[in-house]
Amino acid sequence: MSQLSQRPAASIVGESHPHESAKAHVTGSAYYTDDLVHRFTGVLHAFPVQSTVAHAKLLSVDPAPALKIPGVVEVITAADIPGVNDQGAKHDEPMLPTDEIMFYGQPIAWVLGEDLEAAKAGADAVAVEFEALESLVTIKDAIAANSYHGISPVIDKGDIDSAFADAAHTFEGEFEFGGQEHFYLETQCSLAYVDEGGQIMIHASTQHPTETQDIVSHVLGIDAHNITVQVIRMGGAFGGKEMQPHGYSAVAALGALKTGRPVRVRLDRTRDITMTGKRHGFHAVWKIGFDAEGKILALDATLVADGGWSLDLSEPVLTRALCHIDNSYWIPNIRVHGRVAKCHKTSQTAFRGFGGPQGMLVMEDILGRVAPQMGFDPRELRAKNFYEDGQDTPYYQPVRHPDRIRSAWDQALRDADIARREAEIAEFNANNEHSKRALALTPVKFGISFNLTAFNQGGALVLVYKDGSVHVTHGGTEMGQGLHTKMMQVAATALGVQLSSVRIAPTRTDKVPNTSATAASSGSDLNGGAIKDACEQIQARLAQVAAGMLGVPAHEVKFHRGVVTGLSNGKTVSWEEVVRTAYFQRIQLSAAGFYRTEGLHWDLSTMTGSPFKYFAYGVAASEVEVSRFDGSYTLRRVDIVHDVGDSLSPLIDLGQIEGGFVQGAGWMTLEDLRWDSSDRPTRGRLATQAASTYKIPSFSEMPEIFNVSLLDKAHEEGAVYGSKAVGEPPLMLAFSVREALRQAAASFGPAGHSVDLASPATPEAMFWAIEAARTAAAGHQARS
Question: Which of 93, 242, 728, 739 is catalytic?
Answer without folding.
Answer: 728
